[in-house]
Amino acid sequence: MLDSQYGMYVWPCAVVLAQYLWAHRRSLPGKRVLEIGAGVSLPGVVAARCGAQVILSDSEELPRCLQSCRSSCLMNHLPHVPVLGLTWGRVSPELLSLAPVDIILGSDVFFDPKDFEDILTTVYFLLEKNPHAQFWTTYQVRSADWSVEALLYKWKLKSIHVPLHSFGANKEHLASSSLPGRHTIEMMIISLAQSDGT
């Protein structure tokens, strides 16, 4: 989709995260995966096509994004993939009744700093319910002025930086975009910090 609104465009981060999933496709069959802020759902669709049990979600306040998730599933012959309205930072019946997950996906969810804590609140809630799960996320470096490090510490989360070259995503064509500006993409895996303070 070429609409550059938040959830209606395949942003470069989604392509990079999809590449990571493809590089790890042999580990995905049977894994329970939730994509948050899914929009056009490229990472979730790739995970589902690789055999994962996927649930797609986007804000319940963005019906066009939820419809975009459903359309992506239909176009990719995945009519069985559920789509849920989950709003970051909000405890809803859908969030409370969510089935166990192994992997949470989020591409370019760290877009607007005012949303960062809501995102990590939701991720923390999901990781607390699923202590062995991980949050695989890609983000675009848009400003040197923001970081999620302090929020990770506050929410007792840890992150591991994943170099793009380690899964073949450092190619210019992969994360390129016709949108103006820089497109430096980073990837990290976030999990619960251990109780010993690490």
Automatic annotation (TrEMBL):
Sorted alphabetically, the keyword list is: Chromatin regulator, Cytoplasm, Developmental protein, Methyltransferase, Nucleus, S-adenosyl-L-methionine, Transferase
Q: Where in the cell is it found?
A: Cytoplasm; Nucleus
- Care to name a GO molecular-function term for this sequence? protein-arginine omega-N asymmetric methyltransferase activity
Catalysis: reaction(s): L-arginyl-[protein] + 2 S-adenosyl-L-methionine = N(omega),N(omega)-dimethyl-L-arginyl-[protein] + 2 S-adenosyl-L-homocysteine + 2 H(+)
**GO process terms (BP):** chromatin organization; methylation; regulation of gene expression
Q: Which domain of life is it from?
A: Eukaryota
Give the UniProt entry's GO cellular component terms: cytoplasm; nucleus
Statement: the UniProt record of this protein carries the keyword Methyltransferase? yes
User: Which InterPro entries does the record match to this protein?
Assistant: Methyltransf_16 (IPR019410), SAM-dependent_MTases_sf (IPR029063)
Main localization is cytoplasm
- What does the annotation say about its assembly with partners? Interacts with HSPA5, HSP90B1, TUBULIN, UGGT1 and UGGT2. Interacts with TET3. Interacts with STPG4.
What is this protein for, i.e. what is its function?
Histone methyltransferase that dimethylates histone H3 at 'Arg-17', forming asymmetric dimethylarginine (H3R17me2a), leading to activate transcription via chromatin remodeling. Maternal factor involved in epigenetic chromatin reprogramming of the paternal genome in the zygote: mediates H3R17me2a, promoting histone H3.3 incorporation in the male pronucleus, leading to TET3 recruitment and subsequent DNA demethylation.
Name the protein family: Belongs to the methyltransferase superfamily. METTL23 family.
**Name this polypeptide is given:** Histone-arginine methyltransferase METTL23
